[in-house]
Amino acid sequence: MDTNPGLSSIELPRSIEEERNGEYLHEHWEQGDLLVNHIVALNERYLDTSSSPQISPTYDYIRLLSNCAWFLYEKGNYNEARTILVGGLDACEQLKLVSKSPEIDIIYAHMLNTSAILDDCGGRFDSQIEKLKEVLEIRKRVLGENQEEISGVLNNLCLAYESAMQFQEALEYREKSLEVCRKHPKSMSRETKIQKRELVYSRLLLAMGQLEEAQKLFFGLSRYFELIQNWYFIGHLYIIMGNHHFAKRNFHSSQRCFLHALKQYEEVGKATDHPQAAACLYKIGRVALEEGDLDKAIEKFREAIKRLQLIDPMNPQIGRINFMLGKALKRTSGDHTDEIGKLEKEIQVIVQRLRPQQDLSAEITEALLDSLVDGIIR
């Protein structure tokens, strides 16, 4: 049987191919799911060095893997996305040996960009920044300094530095990203890109404690995202607004925002397993914990953990939620010794993976995870 089914003739459905134009795939998940298993099987075959005959990578093949990796990232299937990238990046390197086409470099940069975003999901911020700078170098070399796509990489660098809590660098890359956007007044997506940068800015202001400055952006962002009917960014904005109210200890408004954000993900009927939906449940649990509603907090934390474990059992966010669940259980009158002990062990495993160290005492573990949830919910 032919194990290389005419890769160059494969037609990519809109949902998988869309990403190479810089568009999100959230509206096309069901369509994209039709091809994912096939692409995963192709990648497994490519990585299996004992298979014969070997799959010889082509331009269409690496493009297919690149778009599939992004699709899997958006769906929250991080482990499978990483496996696709292992094969995809290797295939790019192999193809470079026989072709000098700049298109290969562009696809390689796409994959490296996805890999960098996955590093962010795993808390590997130094690796994320290093990869994004390589992506920026490749795209500038191949596309030019002021090509519109450069703005996206600069924005990703802003997000990476924000995650690493290096706020001055984040602000600098935000300005650079906006500067490139403004150089393309005829671009149909220019205004949406600018509003997305403002969304990032509101989150950055919040992280820096500039609550009133962040609040000034909320109305305009809400009006714009409602106008273009983008449920994903509406959800993201309401999470930021919920964080703002939480920081001001306005728990009623905070919970209302988180519930509205959760509604955006669950109403579409496809996103109940999305990491952002789990994040909303976690944040609703945090509000309940602050208000002293321990039963509700425990329920929401457990549901958030359950959903994340289905998506990616190694997601470091599970450690954060385990920590808060443990806090809630300790405040109840019941005996939860066994469950708390299990949670602490799971937390230590996650902390060890994030920050290897010799001393993994409960005190250090708690201090590391508490820093993630201190003050504003991140």
UniProtKB/TrEMBL annotation:
State whether keyword Repeat applies: yes
Q: Which UniProt keywords apply?
A: Repeat, TPR repeat
Q: InterPro entries in the record, alphabetically?
A: TPR-like_helical_dom_sf (IPR011990), TPR_rpt (IPR019734)
Which Pfam family is one of those matched by this entry?
TPR_12
Work out whether the entry's keyword set contains Disulfide bond: no
PROSITE patterns, per database record: TPR
Top-level taxon in the UniProt lineage: Eukaryota
The stretches annotated as TPR repeats are 278-311
The record's annotation in SMART domains points to:
TPR (SM00028)
By its UniProt entry, which PANTHER family does this protein fall under?
NEPHROCYSTIN-3, TETRATRICOPEPTIDE REPEAT PROTEIN (AFU_ORTHOLOGUE AFUA_6G03870)
**Name used for this protein in its record:** MalT-like TPR region domain-containing protein
